[in-house]
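Quick note —
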Amino acid sequence: MNSTLTRCWETTNPIYVKYHDEEWGVPISDDNRLFEFLVLGGFQAGLNWEIVLMKRNELRRAFNNFNPRIVASFEKRDEERILANPKVIRNRAKISSAIYNAKLFLAIQEQFGSFHDFTQKFVHGRKITHAFTSLSEVPTESIQSRALSKALMERGFRYVGPRICYAFMQAVGMVNDHITSCFRYKQIQRINSAR
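Predicted structure written out below.
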């Protein structure tokens, strides 16, 4: 962990620093990873992201590396198995929703070719780059996240409110919300320009 770098947020938790430095805002097109962030966003509801990151590896194991096809086939016994695991976020509604959402995720893949292609219509196929100088400027939702949330909820998805969708968009690089003084801001811009 390089403590001389300017980051968006201050933390000493190495898991959170690694996430910020290597993942947050990097564009993702792989549907399994998009499903992972959709599920993790649902698990975050009412919690902070640091807790979710600390439970992430165990959640990956519980949900078969977030393979939506496998998760969609989960039965009640799988839900009970996950709920009994003290190393995950043990919330029945969130676990049940992840399984239920996997089925709907597959339906979107079938209709649009991929979940990635489906999400891109909400940003017109372009990454949104903000130029915020402070975290206090970063919104918790947007027109795009409200539209994505509405489209998902109309299909029956759970735990996909506008704030969860905005956090998802930030996480998977649909939006670059690194503050301008953060060392990752320009790096993410360069990644986006190269695509």
